[in-house]
């Protein structure tokens, strides 16, 4: 059991109050020498998590030379943003976000991200360094197939018909991953061989262009196709495999981006705390789950800096059921004795902690740490929204916003 009174006193001793973005410079300095800076969030619908990450991102780009932002989003829709901010496509920042049209749209199609996209566009116009914006997630199986076909039509027309023939294996499933998952799991009808055949041929006859990152676009979309097919096959088994395929894919995609950006590349990663906080410091490890934070630390050690985020109370954008209407929901006061509760009791103001060798042992007790997903029912959060965590082992730093508000979606509509 955690000695909560001792942890509370340690928070009071080591926490740094912040009232403005300028007060976060110590976080930037602590993270600036890393190659991978992981910025978390305790929900996918909290304005301050997005705006503070955006300000840290701007500082890391301007002051520490970071190369790109990689997020928990689909590659094709994020690549549209990348093309816009680098001048590969015309239009407006708002138009660049319109490809985020699949539920949960609000994760990236929101006012907070819109402001960051505008800033990245302006930065790239004014500086020789061209900062990128990419998606690391695995969900875009059909969109990635479409992208591969479109790119092949431009640079390798002779390969198009073979690719279309292979991809026709997926047509009976009506672009619905749950249909594919059931078919693959219970009837043994999958398209794994077809996907692999196309990807082997792509590599064998590779003669794509680096102009406007065409080569990179095909490479990552191909990777998505391979791992998304595996992910959806694993979905119906209700074990750790689908989660592990997803997070391992995100690391592989990130490493491909680092390779493409060359020596000295540095990445800023935006993902939920459950992905960027080391799984070995939580009960996820007991369930056989790994995550991005763990995998990167195992391979890159001190070159990784992970900062978690949390709040005591407020409002959040989420849905009560998967695929249903989104709404601003209340975030109740943190559960008594939780990490967020102790941070609030240490003073009802915004604060951050940087964990180091001197104070790490003071924050190594197991405490409940709130996590809110795209599906959220505040009245039942005590039943499963708190992840047992050793905070100083899970993160390198933690930013706490005492009271938060829901972010501002660009469009809110019911799922079709």
Summarize the structure.
Pfam families: Erythro_esteras. By secondary structure, the protein is of the alpha/beta class. The protein is 43% helix and 15% strand.
Do you know the CATH topology of the largest domain? EreA/ChaN-like  fold
Percentage of residues in helical conformation: 40-55%
CATH-level-4 superfamily name of the largest domain: EreA-like (biosynthetic domain)
- Number of beta-strand segments: 11
The CATH architecture assignment of the largest domain turns out to be: 3-Layer(aba) Sandwich
Oligomer: single chain
The amount of beta strand, in percent, is 5-15%
Principal-axis shape equals globular
Global Rg: 21 Å
Individual helix count: 16
Q: Supply the helix-strand structural class.
A: alpha/beta
Q: What is the ordering of alpha helices and beta strands? A: HEHEHEHHHEHHHHHHEHHEEHEEEHE
Poorly predicted spans: 412-416
- Cα distance spanning the termini: 46 Å
What is the makeup of the main sheet? Answer: 9 strands, mixed
Describe the structure.
Helix content is 43%, strand content 15%. With 416 residues, the protein is of the alpha/beta class. It folds into two domains: 4-135 and 266-404, EreA-like (biosynthetic domain) (EreA/ChaN-like  fold, 3-Layer(aba) Sandwich); 141-247, no CATH class. The strands form two sheets. Strands 1, 2, 3, 4, 5, 6, 7, 8 and 11 form a nine-stranded mixed β-sheet that branches. A two-stranded antiparallel ribbon has the order 9-10. The longest helix is centred in the middle third of the chain and has 22 residues, at 214-235. The model is unreliable at 412-416 (pLDDT under 50).
């Amino acid at each position: 059991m955690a000695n909560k009174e001792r942890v509370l006193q340690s928070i009071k001793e080591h926490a740094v109050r912040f009232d403005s973005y300028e007060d976060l410079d110590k976080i930037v300095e602590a993270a600036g020498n890393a190659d991978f800076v992981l910025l978390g969030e305790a929900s996918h619908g909290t304005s301050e998590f997005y705006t503070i990450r955006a300000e840290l991102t701007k500082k890391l780009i301007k002051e520490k030379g970071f190369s790109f932002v990689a997020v928990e989003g689909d590659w094709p829709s994020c690549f549209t943003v990348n093309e816009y901010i680098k001048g590969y496509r015309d239009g407006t920042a708002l138009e660049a976000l319109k490809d985020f049209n699949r539920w949960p749209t609000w994760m990236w199609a929101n006012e907070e991200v819109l402001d960051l996209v505008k800033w990245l566009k302006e930065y790239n116009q004014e500086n020789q360094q061209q900062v990128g914006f990419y998606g690391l997630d695995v969900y875009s199986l059909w969109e990635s197939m479409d992208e591969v076909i479109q790119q092949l039509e431009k640079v390798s027309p002779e390969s198009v018909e073979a690719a279309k023939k292979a991809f026709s294996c997926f047509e009976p499933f009506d672009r619905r991953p749950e249909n594919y998952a059931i078919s693959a799991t219970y009837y043994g009808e999958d398209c794994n061989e077809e996907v692999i055949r196309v990807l082997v041929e792509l590599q064998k006859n590779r003669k794509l262009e680096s102009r406007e990152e065409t080569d990179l676009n095909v490479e990552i979309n191909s990777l998505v196709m391979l791992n998304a097919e595996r992910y959806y096959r694993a979905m119906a088994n209700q074990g750790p495999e689908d989660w592990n395929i997803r997070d391992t894919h995100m690391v592989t995609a990130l490493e491909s981006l680092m390779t493409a950006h060359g020596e000295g590349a540095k990445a800023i990663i935006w993902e939920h705390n459950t992905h960027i906080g080391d799984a070995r410091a939580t009960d996820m490890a007991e369930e056989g789950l790994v995550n991005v934070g763990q995998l990167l630390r195992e391979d890159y050690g001190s070159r990784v800096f992970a900062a978690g985020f949390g709040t005591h109370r407020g409002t959040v954008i989420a849905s009560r059921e998967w695929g249903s209407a989104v709404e601003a929901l209340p975030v109740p006061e943190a559960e008594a004795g939780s990490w967020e509760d102790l941070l609030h009791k240490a003073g009802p103001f915004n604060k951050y902690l940087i964990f180091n060798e001197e104070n790490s042992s003071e924050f190594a007790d197991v405490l409940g740490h709130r996590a809110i997903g795209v599906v959220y029912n505040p009245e039942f959060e005590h039943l499963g929204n708190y992840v047992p965590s050793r905070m100083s082992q899970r993160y390198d730093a933690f930013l706490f916003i005492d009271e938060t508000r829901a972010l501002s979606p660009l469009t809110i509509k019911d799922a079709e």
